[in-house]
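Protein record

Derive tokens from sequence
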Amino acid sequence: MVTILSDSFSLINSWINDLRNVDVQADRLRFRRNMERIGEIAAFEISKELEYREVEITTPLDKIKSREIAVQPVITTILRAGVPLFQGVLNYFDRADCGFVAAYRKHDANDYFSIKQDYLTCPSIEGRPLIVADPMLATGASLIEALKDLLTHGKPSQLHIVSAIAAKEGMETVSMAYPEAHIWIGALDEKLTSKGYITPGLGDAGDLSYGEKLQR
């Protein structure tokens, strides 16, 4: 299942416009905060899909029966570009456990790439909702590699993937690999370049958040 958050016009459209806009991108704080905001909106929508249990709350005057999340999710991201989007999700699921994956594109002399993954830390996800924050879902290759390793930590009760911008090809690739996943997308772009970058996209989310990196 795929939900495109910007299909219903709201503030999220303005935040995505700012993320894409080269005149706004120079403000790293604003860029990171807009990524957070998209994560927060996605977290709110995901919360509607979770299981709830009945609880009794004692107020200063009485007791009341209410509901709260039955099982807290595990929130994960792919370092480093995913951190602001991840933080937005965590802002709303503030009792969640967290996991982290280090993966990157290893480019050759022609700027084609393979996926290198060299670090993962994660609690058990057995029977728990798993939320993966990946800001740019381009080819889907790095996300699929990350999920392969994450799912060795258990079978989640639900799988949610959050991306600020996705390419249609990458979204379809991930949906085929993990048909049980609910993919939440800020905006869907139609194309990838010949070298696997989303267009029109927004550029490199990691560089725009934290500065240019040395090429490796």
In short: The mean pLDDT is 91. The two ends are 36 Å apart (CA to CA).
